[in-house]
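Comment on both lines for my students:
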Amino acid sequence: MTMKAFIGQHEIVTDDDALELMLGTPLDLWLGPAEETGEERAARLDAARDILTEDPELTERVRRAVLLALANLSAELLHATWFNQYTAHRAGRIHAGAPAQEAA
């Protein structure tokens, strides 16, 4: 049995779902699809400007989301670096205090 996550009545299946619900807009509006014409891009950016004008607090929500994502990524990278050094030390590939080196 798996646990499901919801925001209101909306089920969160992916990270993108959570971001879209937090922002209140689809991510493609801000990031753009993989391929779009110049005309489509201009229309998309025009719509994004209108949304920012109507919802000035959106910028702050985006800033908080980016800071949280960066904090989580930094913690994961720090843990991965520490774990790699620890396991290399335990395997006898490095001495205490020496930087970890890739195994040949």
User: Anything to note?
Assistant: The mean pLDDT is 78. Residues 1-55 form one domain. Strands lie at 5-7, 10-12. The CA atoms of residues 72 and 102 lie 25 Å apart.
